[in-house]
Design brief:
Elements lengths: L4 H13 L10 H11 L8 H13 L3 E3 L14 E3 H8 L3 H14 L3 E5 L5 H7 L6 E6 L2 H13 L5 E5 L2 H9 L7 E4 L5 H12 L7 E5 L5 H11 L6 E4 L3 E5 L8 E4 L3
Parallel strand pairs: 3-4, 3-6, 4-5, 6-7, 8-10
Antiparallel strand pairs: 1-2, 7-9, 8-9
Length: 264
């Protein structure tokens, strides 16, 4: 992401205050997360395959016309964008995607809802955890949604359901399916108002072991404000701030609220 003063200030503060490799972490569950998710460097067999897809996207000159209903891109202003440009400026890094994969694997998630499909690479990461997992991903731009569907078909991922709609029109329906939602990944419409609205909607469908993942929590002052309010919410028992991504948990065994910062 493009770095501004707000991001630079918070990154420096995070760098000097965040825990390294579980140091100072007293919650047994949080320590397990450190060991198995955030600081685990053991490769999964599928990572090389997914990384090859990432490289193909970065090199692609295919042009898409994007209908952007969110806060927009800080780097790409034109509606006509090359896939390679979108991949370079607007998708998760290799490390972020692999951390998401590890988290879903560690938590044993069966159903995940993603807001903001983009090119569909993170959808592939989530769907690759195992064949029985169900991924529901929502994208407002028809051209991006179609591209992501084609990418999934090319890679034989049949456990992803694609919804092309505005988040406000589709989120509750995706959450309100018979199967409980184990993870919600918020990666679109990066504004304070929208992020809080989606959080409150998803909160109605969470269970004790659900995890919410928020991308780009320092993208803007509004996103940082939203993250602070979300992590302070009384139903949130533990929050983890890795600077680029924020995680909140609702686990009942955590009696006193835990707020952690990890440097990964």
């Amino acid at each position: 992401m493009t770095v501004n003063f707000h991001q630079a200030f918070h990154f420096l503060r995070h760098f000097f205050t965040a825990a390294r490799k579980g140091h100072g972490v007293h919650s047994p569950f949080a320590y397990q997360l450190c060991e198995e998710v955030f600081y685990n460097t053991a490769p999964f067999y599928v990572f090389n395959y997914l990384d090859a897809i990432r490289r193909q996207l970065l090199q692609s000159g295919l042009e898409l016309r994007i209908e952007d209903y969110g806060a927009g891109s800080k780097k790409l202003k034109s509606d006509a964008r090359k896939v390679g440009e979108i991949a370079a400026a607007g998708i998760s890094t290799k490390k972020q995607s692999e951390t998401l994969f590890r988290l879903i694997n560690f938590m044993g998630c069966k159903k995940c809802v993603e807001l903001g499909t983009s090119l569909g690479l993170n959808s592939l990461y989530m769907a690759s955890v195992n064949s029985s997992i169900r991924i529901i991903t929502i994208e407002g731009s028809p051209s991006l949604g179609l591209f992501a569907q084609q990418l999934a078909r090319q890679n034989a991922k049949n456990n992803i359901e694609f919804i092309t709609a505005r988040f406000d029109d589709a989120l509750e329906e995706a959450l309100d399916r018979p199967q409980p939602t184990d993870l919600v990944y918020f990666d679109g419409h990066h504004t304070y108002e929208a992020t809080l609205r989606y959080f409150k909607t998803a909160l109605k469908y969470r269970h004790a072991n659900t995890v919410f993942v928020f991308d780009d929590i320092y993208w803007s002052k509004g996103m940082t404000r939203a993250w602070k309010e979300i992590s302070a919410h009384p139903e949130v028992r533990m929050s983890i701030d890795t600077f680029f991504t924020g995680y909140v948990f609702f686990r009942e065994e955590i009696r006193e609220k835990v707020a952690l910062k990890f440097y990964t």
